[in-house]
Structure formats: structure tokens, C-alpha cells
Design brief:
By secondary structure, the chain is α+β, with helices and mostly antiparallel strands. It has four domains: about 180 residues, Histidine kinase-like ATPase, C-terminal domain (Heat Shock Protein 90, 2-Layer Sandwich), CATH 3.30.565.10; about 120 residues, 2-Layer Sandwich (Ribosomal Protein S5, domain 2); about 170 residues, formyl-coa transferase, domain 3; about 80 residues, 2-Layer Sandwich (Ribosomal Protein S8, Chain: A, domain 1). It has an eight-stranded mixed β-sheet with strand order 7-6-5-8-3-2-9-10. A five-stranded mixed β-sheet has the order 11-12-17-14-15, with helices on both faces. Helix 2 packs parallel to helix 7, helix 7 packs antiparallel against helix 8 and helix 18 runs antiparallel to helix 19. It is elongated, with a radius of gyration of 29 Å. The termini are far apart. Bound molecules: adenosine-5'-diphosphate (ADP) and magnesium ion.
Length: about 650
């Protein structure tokens, strides 16, 4: 039965026109969306030479009758919306009726389609927009669409295509985006005749993600329990604290199943991760948002990648809440968050070439100069499980986040390597010792201090190899926990200044200080108004090391004012605690004596979370002996 209608002119002009097919990946997006809209259970994507020479999509969806097959090549021919009202609430991926005619006009195009009940199907050939042939087609029910020699008739556009490898990387990324959102659909991807991805249908979202990103990464994801806040339903999987990337490649978010990017969503994620995410890093997310289609507009971007929310705040809020809630809960699980390893990764996934730096763990950064990723040192320095200490009376959010990091074992020391670099056996070992949510202070491991690199990194010999401690980060951690304990037990010990410091501030900073007087007092900073925009400081935290209290206080004010411009003032004092602790820490170029280093190490291991500083940066990294042996050619790689 014919289903396609030509859009009335008025409506058609309301549909944003634009560059629909700028590169092979865009063809994949449009054609896969069509197949999904057609209810396909299995979608095959075959590409030749990056998709420039050929893209073929084979699906087992509804297929089309002859009339529709002819009509679908007309501009603005769509079966998916009919009226202006439909445009306000789009339930399908497609709605513009633009993709097929656009693709057919810039390629050697073939469409073969058959409805399930039809005795015979239809095959149509179009050459650069000109109809060449229509004939019967005897293939299986479903639709095959093939576009060869993309832009053969538009050399100007062809010039903008990148290398075949780059184009294919985009094709693959595009397919991955769809595959994640549609686990119930099987996907196959080949390039130049070689199998790149084979993803069987599954009901289990995590199973699908595992097939795409590998066992190692999937096992470290946290499940976001489905919650609805103000009509915004959020669910999916996200990386735990400390798991991040230097680009957005793995920050995937979906709105009603459509992969999208949106500032509201990014803000929500950032807010939700809070201190669990290092500056300049992006989280790993597979996050699904479900909303009434009336509450947003997808018709703002030719590639339908961006949406406009009518109420961006509630989206941001819902995401922020689910993410922070998920991270908090992860810390409470007695054995960490890692779901059991069940099925092995789909074999094809291992062979899948990754897009450049998509697997760059942030924690490889401290050793970026080293060519090989670090090996894990969890077995060497993981705290020994002990009984749970009594919960502190006051719970600070920053502290919670930090605890989660320890509980999640996502610290740099523990998961420093890129998954594909891990030998299977080593990866297995990683799962063994599970840190409890709250561990007894660990005995410092037997480390022999060898020396100090760049007045910052303490080099140590451990059982497993070379261990480096960032003395600045370690001090931040130690001071942060000291601060927190002191606040919980009534106040930070302070040192009285020989001469009180007077601070002349701007009216804005004066306001800020007045608002924060109680928190500052609790932090050991006795400060009081001393005139218009002038403050007198009598005491500073006892363990503060600074020759210039006024300059240090300026930094505190600066920190407070930069925090106050951020979205939520609720977190102000918590952030201040962390940042003030850092300001009070030993400077990176302070020279420590050996006993001081030993004391620092001991203090660090007395911390609840020794492995990262309050900003999520690592305090310890290890280069294992076997890694060194490989580097020096004493052992075969792998
Ligand atoms: P849109 O998806 O915006 O409707 P397209 O140009 O992508 O526009 O497709 C036009 C129409 O062709 C669709 O509305 C649909 O009815 C039909 N169609 C396209 N691809 C398929 C397919 N794989 N299986 C069944 N029908 C399809
Ligand atoms: Mg479409």
C-alpha cells in the first residue's frame, strides 16, 4: 500500500533545508535511520574505499511498494509526517523527505526494495539524479540502497572529502552511535570486503556497549538507573570517577534514541561529575534521555545532530542529578561497581580500528612522554580491605566523590592502560583485589625512595617496579583529608599571625567574603570586616606553608569568586575546601628531605583515598618491571 505523500509547499519550506549528505558518514546516518524507521532487525553497512567508492545498506525492514519506491526519490517525499503539527512532535528519525533524493543526485544510486507480502519487488537506478531504469527485483524482503562514486558529478564537493581512512573512521563512528542506541537491531559493517563490526541483536544495552568498546571499558561503566525528573527520563551507562577522555568522542548522548549534542546536556554532565572529572577532560557516557517530543525541536540542524530544548534547565538538572546520584551510589557498593565479566567481547570488536585517541585515558597523561601506556599497579598498592569505619557525621559532597573514586578503583594507578594494550591475563588480574567502599588506612607499601625528579616526582622502588609520587598532588590529598576531618570534628587548627593581615578588596569580593565568613572561620581563617571593603585576618590554617599570607588569601578570594560564577552556589564551600587545601599544599618545587618524603607517603596511605588529589589527578603512578624490561628489549612485547 502506498504510504508516501508529497509535503505541502508551506510545510516543506518550514523544514530546514541544508547540506544533508556532506560525506559518506552522512549517508550512513540517513540510510541507517531510514532502515530503523522501517523497523529493520538487521542492518548491514558495506563500504568501499572509505565509503567514497561505495556505500551499500541492506536491511530487512518493511520495504516499499513500487509506487512508494518511485515516490521516495522525489524531494520532500516522506511517509513520516503529514502536517505542521507532526513537525512539532517527531517520533521518527526521518521527517524531511530529503535524504534519498539528495543522495541519488550526487551518486550512482540503486534502490532495490520489496515488501514482505509482495511477490516481486522493485529496483530503481538513478545516475546523478537522472532516472536510468526501473525493473522488477527478486531479492529478499527489505531494502537495499547503494550509492557509488559519491560526488562523481560534483567535483567541488568531492574535493572536501578527506582520506579514505578518515572517511571510514567517520562512517564507523556513525554506525557505532546508532548501534549503541539500538541494541535490539543487529548490525554488520564491512570495509573493502573485510568485516569490521558484527553486533548480534541483544536486549541488553551493556552487552551491546561491550561489543563496541570492549570488555575492559564496559566492565568499568556504572549503570544509570532510570529516573524521571520534570518529564525528563535519564538512563544508560557512564564512566566512573576518573574515567575520562581528552575529547568528546566517547561522550555519547541520545534524545529519544537519536544521537545528539547539546550544550544543556554537556553542562548537566559536567555538573554531575563535578570534581570527579579533571579540567579539560570529557566523560565517557552512553546516556539516554527520553522526553515528550513536544518539549524540543530537532528541526534546527541539517544533520539533526543538535536539538533545541524548550526548557534546557530541566534537562541539565535531570542529567546532573542522575549522574551525581550514580557516582554517589557507586561508592556505596561494597565491592566496587564493576559488573561481573560475563560474555567475552565480540571478536570483531578487538580488531576494530579505533578513531585516533579515542582510548586515551587521562591518566596516561602524566607519562605522556612514555611511548607505552602504564601497567596497572592495583595489586601493588591497593589498600587492604578492612572493616568499615563509622560514617562521619558530616558528609561533604567533594569527600563523597573522592570516596567513590577509591571505591570505584578507577584511579590512575589502577586503570592506567588503554584496553587494547592490556594483555588478557593482566586485564584479568586487575579485577581481583576489590577495594571496599571505605578501607582502613592502608599500611604504606614497602617503597625505597630513590630520588626526586624535577623537584616534584618522588621516585621509588616498589615490589612491582618503579613508582612515582607527585608530591604536590599527594600533599593536596593529605591536606584535603586533614581539612575535612578537622571540619567534621569542629574546626581546623589555626596559627595566629604575628601581624594581622589587612585585605583591601573590591565591593564584589567583600560581599563574597562576608557570605563565606562562617566557612572560612571553620577552615581556620579568622577573618572579620575592618572597614568598608577591608578585612582583617588574624589566623590561618596551622599547616599552611606560605611566606606571603596576603597573596595566599588573594588566591582564596579569587577561587571563591570564580566558583561563585559557576552554576550552583550550593557547592561553593565544598569546592572551597578542596581548593583551599590545594593552595595550602607544599609547592611543587619545595625540596623535601627523605624523612619528609617518607612521612608524606605514610600520611598519603593513611588517607581514605590515597590515589588521587582532590581534583581527580593521580598521586601515584607505576611503571612495572615488565614494562621496563619490554622497553629495554629484555622481554618480547605483549
Ligand atoms: P525521510 O526519512 O525524511 O522521510 P527519506 O528521503 O530519507 O526521507 O526517505 C523517504 C521515504 O522513503 C521515507 O519516508 C520512507 O517512507 C521511504 N524509505 C526510505 N528508506 C527506506 C527503507 N530502508 N525501508 C523502507 N522505506 C524507506
Ligand atoms: Mg530519512
Amino acid at each position: 500500500m502506498a504510504k508516501i505523500r508529497i509535503l505541502p509547499d508551506a510545510l516543506a519550506s518550514q523544514v530546514a533545508a541544508g547540506e544533508v549528505v556532506e560525506r559518506p558518514a552522512a549517508l550512513v546516518r540517513e540510510l541507517v535511520e531510514n532502515s530503523l524507521d522501517a523497523g529493520a532487525h538487521h542492518i548491514e553497512v558495506h563500504a568501499q574505499r572509505g565509503g567514497i567508492a561505495m556505500i551499500r545498506i541492506v536491511d530487512d525492514g518493511s520495504g516499499m511498494d513500487r509506487e512508494d519506491a518511485m515516490l521516495c526519490l522525489e524531494r520532500h517525499a516522506t511517509s513520516k509526517i503529514r502536517t505542521k503539527e507532526d513537525l512539532g512532535a517527531i517520533h521518527t528519525f526521518g521527517f524531511r523527505g530529503e535524504a534519498l533524493p539528495s543522495i541519488a543526485s550526487v551518486s550512482r544510486f540503486r534502490l532495490a526494495t520489496r515488501e514482505k507480502s509482495a511477490l516481486v519487488g522493485t529496483e530503481i537506478e538513478v545516475n546523478g539524479g537522472k532516472l536510468v531504469a526501473v525493473r522488477d527485483h527478486g531479492g529478499a524482503p527489505g531494502t537495499v540502497i547503494e550509492a557509488r562514486s559519491l560526488f562523481f558529478n560534483v567535483p567541488a564537493r568531492r574535493k572536501f572529502l578527506r582520506t579514505e581512512n578518515t572517511e571510514f573512521a567517520h562512517v564507523e563512528q556513525q554506525l557505532r552511535l546508532h548501534a549503541i542506541a539500538n541494541p535490539q537491531t543487529a548490525f554488520t559493517l564491512t570495509h573493502n570486503g573485510e568485516l569490521v563490526l558484527h553486533l548480534p541483536a541483544t536486549r541488553d544495552m551493556l552487552e551491546r556497549i561491550r561489543g563496541l568498546v570492549g570488555d575492559e571499558l564496559a566492565s568499568r561503566l556504572l549503570k544509570v538507573e532510570e529516573t524521571t525528573v520534570q518529564g525528563v527520563t535519564v538512563s544508560g551507562y557512564i564512566g566512573g570517577p576518573g574515567m575520562s577522555r581528552s575529547n568528546r568522542q566517547m561522550q555519547t548522548t541520545y534524545l529519544n534514541g537519536r544521537p545528539i549534542e547539546s550544550a544543556s546536556i554537556s553542562y548537566g554532565l559536567r555538573e554531575g561529575y563535578h570534581t570527579a572529572l579533571m579540567k579539560g577532560q570529557y566523560p565517557v557516557t552512553f546516556l539516554f534521555i527520553q522526553m515528550d517530543p513536544h518539549a524540543f525541536d530537532v528541526n534546527v540542524h541539517p544533520a539533526k545532530k543538535e536539538v533545541r530544548f524548550h526548557d534546557g534547565h530541566s534537562v541539565r538538572d535531570a542529567i546532573s542529578r542522575s549522574v551525581s546520584h550514580t557516582l554517589e551510589n557507586a561508592a556505596k557498593l561494597p565491592t566496587g561497581h564493576a559488573p561481573a565479566r560475563t560474555a567475552p567481547a565480540a571478536p570483531a570488536a578487538a580488531r576494530t580500528p579505533q578513531l585516533p585517541d579515542s582510548r586515551q585515558e587521562q591518566f596516561a597523561m602524566p607519562v605522556a612522554a612514555s611511548s607505552a601506556p602504564l601497567r596497572n599497579i592495583a595489586p601493588a598498592i591497593a589498600p587492604t580491605p578492612g572493616p568499615q569505619p563509622a560514617a562521619p557525621a558530616v558528609s561533604h559532597r567533594v569527600a563523597d566523590v573522592l570516596e567513590r573514586i577509591a571505591a570505584g578503583r578507577s584511579t590512575p594507578a589502577i586503570h592506567p592502560q588503554a584496553p587494547e594494550a592490556a594483555a588478557p591475563q593482566e586485564a584479568q588480574e586487575e579485577e581481583e583485589p576489590q577495594a571496599p567502599a571505605k578501607a582502613e588506612p592502608a599500611e604504606p607499601p614497602e617503597y625505597r625512595i630513590i630520588g626526586v625528579l624535577q623537584k616534584l616526582y618522588v621516585l621509588m622502588e616498589g615490589k612491582e617496579g618503579l613508582v612515582l609520587m607527585d608530591q604536590h598532588a599527594a600533599h593536596e590529598r593529605v591536606n584535603f583529608e586533614k581539612f575535612r576531618r578537622a571540619i567534621e570534628s569542629g574546626g581546623v587548627p589555626c596559627q595566629r599571625l604575628l601581624l594581622p593581615v589587612t585585605l583591601q578588596t573590591t565591593p564584589r569580593d567583600a560581599d563574597l567574603l562576608r557570605q563565606n565568613l562562617p566557612s572560612l572561620n571553620r577552615l581556620g581563617i579568622e577573618i572579620e570586616p575592618f572597614g568598608p571593603n577591608i578585612f582583617k585576618v588574624e589566623t590561618l590554617p596551622a599547616f599552611l606553608k606560605t611566606d606571603d599570607p596576603a597573596a595566599w588569601l588573594d588566591q582564596v578570594i579569587e577561587e571563591l569568586s570564580s566558583l561563585s560564577t559557576k552554576s550552583s552556589s550550593l557547592r561553593l564551600s565544598e569546592d572551597a575546601i578542596a581548593t583551599i587545601a590545594c593552595r595550602a599544599s607544599v609547592k611543587s618545587n619545595d625540596v623535601l628531605s627523605i624523612p619528609e618524603m617518607q612521612a608524606l607517603l605514610k600520611d598519603l596511605f593513611a588517607c581514605e583515598m590515597p590515589y588521587c588529589c582532590p581534583h581527580g589527578r593521580p598521586t601515584l603512578v607505576q611503571i612495572s618491571t615488565s614494562e621496563l624490561e619490554r622497553k629495554f628489549g629484555r622481554r618480547a612485547p605483549g
